[in-house]
Write a structure and sequence with these properties.
heterodimer, A: 412 residues, alpha+beta, Sulfite Oxidase, Chain A, domain 2, 2 domains, 5-stranded mixed β-sheet, 5-stranded antiparallel β-sheet, 11 helices, 14% strand, B: 158 residues, mainly alpha, 4 helices, 0% strand
């Protein structure tokens, strides 16, 4: 029963009326309020133009798409829905996607800064809102700017491991803010499409104040700034550039056994448990459970692989790992290692990353080891002594250290 | 000769509406997802608003003021190069400052933030400003080769 809509009022009519209502001009605010930056001509740089903003916006849209895509991959690997599948090869793929994620995000700093400078006068547009539709559009731009700044600032704080200023769990905040940013970006492109089209197709003279930067000069400056930032940090994953990366939060070769550490044995609270002579690795299958001492593990067939640890924070470092293949351990329980997944648990009693599930492609892969040695030496306690998981093409947080229990299951 | 073809405009109009609608849907997904995620907490909203206010209300106006000041202090011919160097320096500083502050360091993990970032930042400043000086010098050389200055250009001193 429809009471409100009288006869002859179709949904299309309602929509049209709604849109017209949203577009109705709002009453003009008192002119006396138009002070400070709200005054006409408060911003005098001739460098600002739709063309400059469009070019910067285009570059920023591309960079944000790269960050969103690579970030989503990282999220899905760590929280895989049933439809998601991630291969175990190429071994360094995640190293590349996550390195790109962080490097692109850092390179966005000058890009976003200058882009926002180029549209700053619009923040003080008069009247602040011409209609409700205009107010909604401005609110969505505020969401875009806030979410974009949130992504860059929280990302920078995260790689510097400075969590005190972030009153939320970084990973969750960064993830949902990414959706907000990308949604607001898509809407923003929709709204601004005609301006961008016009700005990029019509020639715009490169006007500038005498002695000031030209548009080309400013774009070059943004590129130079992005280049300097990249060179100063990318050595955290591109090892040959480490000597010039004076702002890299990590050095690939710096740490115990020439490999950086995220969580130490002391930090994880396992220092006593790992040196306990009663240590046994339990390998649990549906049919039987095998209990292995460190000597038993060393007595099994040993294999050596060269694999990177690739951190979600964008750094990576290659190690030479020796140990037992996960698939051999899975086979000990009678489970077919070609069609199995393994749940690997640490001696850590709590913590978000105390356990990880190894998906079938990685369980099957002969490169996936329960490693006992790094660079020929027994694992350093901070690298997971007595045994740790190391698998190709996976984030470092999933390479469980101080392994105490492996549960093998047939993958359905 | 026919009527003007309005098809491209129609396509653009439809594309714009689709983009705006899709964007609104994704934003709604983000907000619902954040509300449903116990790890996000109200702190994320405070941070979201905080970075916006800090940037638009503090960092950007201060940067613009610094640019105006540079425009007053620096001779006309060097102004563009100096402003470019300021922009690059500011961008690098934003990336470097939490590292220089070093609050993320942990006593039991020397592999974390292993470098002297204050020194690194000073080295980068040195490279930026040395490059700017060279660029300014090269420009001056070109101007001298090109002959006397354009009489129409304003005087170099304020």
């Amino acid at each position: 029963m429809v009471r409100d809509a009288g006869p002859g009022v179709s949904p299309a009519d309602l929509l049209r009326r709604g849109v017209a209502w949203l577009r109705q001009p709002l009453p003009a605010p008192p002119v006396a309020l138009r002070r400070g930056p709200l005054r006409r001509g408060a911003f005098d740089s001739k460098l600002r133009s739709p063309r400059l903003t469009s070019l910067l916006g285009l570059a920023l849209a591309g960079a944000f798409t790269v960050c969103f895509g690579t970030g989503l991959i990282s999220h899905l690997i760590q929280h895989p829905p049933s439809w998601f599948w991630w291969p175990s090869r190429p071994v360094g793929l995640y190293r590349v996607t996550q390195g790109l994620h962080v490097a692109t995000g850092l390179a966005c700093v000058p890009l976003l800064g200058v882009k926002l400078w180029s549209v700053y006068p619009r923040l003080f547009a008069w009247p602040p809102a011409r209609s409700l539709a205009h107010a909604i559009e401005r609110a969505s731009i505020a969401a875009l700017v806030a979410a974009a700044l949130f992504q860059l600032v929280s990302g920078i704080f995260n790689i510097a491991r400075w969590y005190a200023p972030m009153p939320f769990f970084f990973t969750a905040g960064h993830y949902w803010s990414a959706w907000l940013a990308i949604g607001a970006l898509i809407a923003h492109i929709g709204v601004k499409l005609p301006i961008v089209r016009q700005a990029l197709t019509r020639p715009t003279p490169d006007r500038t104040a005498a002695g000031g930067l030209t548009r080309r000069g400013l774009l070059g400056t943004v590129g130079a700034a992005a280049g300097v930032i990249t060179l100063a940090t990318v050595g955290q994953t591109v090892a040959p550039l480490a000597p010039v990366s004076v702002l890299a939060p990590r050095r690939p070769g710096t740490g115990p056994q020439r490999l950086p550490v995220n969580k130490t044995a002391a930090g994880a609270g396992v220092r006593e448990a790992i040196f306990d002579s009663a240590y046994r690795l339990s390998v649990v299958g549906p049919a039987r459970t095998v209990s292995l001492s460190l000597n038993d593990l060393a007595g099994l067939a040993q294999h050596t692989v060269v694999l990177p640890i690739s951190c979600v924070e964008g750094w990576s470092s290659t190690g030479t790992w020796t140990g037992v293949r996960l698939r051999d351990l899975v086979a000990l329980t009678g489970v077919d290692p070609d069609n199995a997944e393994a749940y690997v648990e640490s001696l850590q009693t709590s913590g978000r990353y105390r356990a990880s599930t190894v998906a079938p492609p990685h369980t099957r892969d002969p490169f996936t080891l329960v490693a006992l040695r790094l660079g020929g030496e027994p694992l350093h306690p901070d690298h997971g002594y007595p045994a740790r998981l190391i698998a190709p093409n996976r984030p470092g947080v999933l390479q469980t250290k101080w392994v105490s229990r492996i549960t093998a299951r047939n993958a359905s | 000769m026919g009527l003007p073809d309005h098809r491209p405009e129609r396509v653009v109009k439809i594309a714009r509406r689709c983009l705006a609608a899709l964007g609104a849907l994704v934003m709604a997904y983000a907000m619902i997802g954040a509300l449903a995620d116990a790890d996000v907490r109200p702190g994320a909203l405070i941070f979201l608003i905080g970075v916006l206010v800090a940037h638009d209300g503090l960092l950007l106006p201060l940067s613009i003021a610094a640019g105006v000041l540079a425009g007053r202090l620096v001779p006309l011919r060097q102004r563009a190069v100096v402003k470019a160097a300021l922009v690059v320096s500011l961008a690098v500083t934003i990336v470097a400052f939490p590292l220089v502050l070093g609050r993320g360091r942990a006593a039991d993990n020397p592999s974390l933030l292993p470098l002297h970032y204050g020194r690194g930042l000073l080295e980068i400043y040195a490279i930026i400003w040395a490059t700017a000086a060279v660029a300014g010098g090269v420009q001056a050389l070109h101007r001298r080769r090109a002959g006397p200055p354009d009489p129409q250009s304003p005087p170099a001193t304020p």
